[in-house]
């Protein structure tokens, strides 16, 4: 059992527990039971009536839910720093860079893929990410996609089959779609919870994406979609039509796209990935426009070696506020509860009774400091299921 008191500013994400949409409680306490689930949340003055263990006092620090990063590509090998430098020198971003990582990933051993995924997952955990989704997509062959998903399973249960990332070089697109829907899906489905398709310029068109998503759904996988990152197209409309859990990127959207997403807010989340725009010098998604229209919005890191090589959800939150018009409350909700909704999870993303005890202690006066102090490491301690997994509790008294 873990009991933490003296919380100056506790974000629960439950409006029934505290103030505003974030359900903020001041001078708060949290108790996590031996089963790793939150058993009680309330005022510090009342905590001793709800725990048999001596509460640890955080001295007025902030506690927020662990970040839920619902879109990453952690399984890969190689390095694309030269591509990044060229892009910063003026060359445009092209999805074809994925093929560079494909060659390195195919050449890597299983142990190397697992070690790199674990390194990045640990990096994300240290910055407060307690739930993370990981995609395949850099193997692009039956054997390499299967072992990529096995590597992903070494770090998370939220694994996504992305054999439809791009068409490999010297491969007929129609034949490759058949492979993805057939032998590749058969090998990969046992290791995945989700299927995803990159539906955009240089990748897969709407009809191809529909075919692949339908095959994945028939195999029992949940569906998600890369949509409208590089240009406006039919990705978002397809995602809403098929009831995907999340349309990711949503950089180029029309009024009709927004209407569709708003109408499907209980089914389909728009997951925005601002570090991808930061690192490709592309226009940022208009989060303000989406939220004002009633769209459910999540924020995620898109951690990958080509267009967003960061695992920092605090940076994503800061960009949501500074570059996409979100309020500080909206950005934090989208990076926690929004991410949980994008993964169709009800046990993470908040700090309320019966949810998993995933919490992050910040050395700050409020969650606003995540955006107010961009680039500063405010995370002192990360707790997952009631256990300290990063940092320490030595400062608690």
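Sequence proposed for the structure above (397 residues):
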């Amino acid at each position: 059992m873990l009991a933490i008191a003296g919380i100056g500013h506790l974000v629960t994400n439950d409006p029934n527990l505290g103030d505003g949409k974030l359900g903020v409680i001041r001078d708060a306490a949290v108790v996590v039971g031996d089963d790793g689930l939150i058993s009680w949340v309330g005022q510090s003055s009342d905590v001793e009536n709800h725990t048999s263990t001596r509460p640890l006092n955080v001295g007025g620090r902030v506690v927020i839910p662990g970040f839920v990063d619902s879109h990453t590509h952690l399984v890969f090998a190689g390095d694309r720093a030269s591509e990044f430098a060229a892009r910063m020198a003026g060359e445009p971003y092209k999805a074809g860079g994925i093929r560079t990582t494909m060659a390195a990933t195919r050449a890597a051993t299983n142990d190397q893929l697992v070690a790199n995924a674990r390194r990045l997952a640990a990096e994300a955990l240290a910055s407060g990410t307690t739930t993370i989704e990981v995609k395949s997509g850099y193997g692009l062959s039956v054997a390499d996609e299967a072992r990529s998903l096995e590597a992903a399973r070494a770090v998370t249960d939220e694994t996504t089959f992305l054999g439809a990332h791009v068409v490999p070089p010297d491969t007929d697109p129609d034949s490759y779609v058949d492979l993805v829907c057939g032998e590749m899906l058969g090998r990969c489905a046992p290791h995945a919870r989700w299927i995803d398709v990159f539906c955009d310029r240089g990748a897969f068109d709407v009809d191809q994406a529909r075919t692949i998503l339908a095959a994945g759904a028939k195999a029992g996988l949940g569906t998600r979609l890369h949509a409208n990152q590089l240009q406006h197209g039919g990705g978002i409309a397809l995602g809403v039509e098929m009831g995907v859990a999340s349309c990711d990127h949503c950089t180029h959207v029309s009024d009709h796209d927004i209407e569709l997403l708003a109408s499907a807010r209980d089914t389909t989340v728009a997951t925005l990935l601002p570090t991808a725009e930061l690192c490709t010098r592309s226009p940022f998604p208009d989060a303000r426009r989406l939220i004002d229209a009633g769209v459910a919005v999540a924020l995620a890191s898109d951690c990958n070696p080509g267009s967003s090589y960061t695992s920092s959800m605090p940076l994503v939150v800061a960009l949501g506020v500074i570059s996409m018009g979100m309020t500080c409350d909206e950005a934090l909700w989208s990076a926690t509860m929004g991410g949980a909704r994008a993964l169709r999870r009800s046990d993470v993303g908040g700090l309320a009774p019966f949810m998993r005890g995933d919490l992050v202690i910040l050395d700050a006066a409020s969650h606003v400091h995540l955006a107010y102090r961009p680039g500063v490491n405010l995370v002192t301690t990360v707790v997952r299921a009631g256990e300290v997994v990063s940092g320490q509790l030595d400062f608690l008294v």
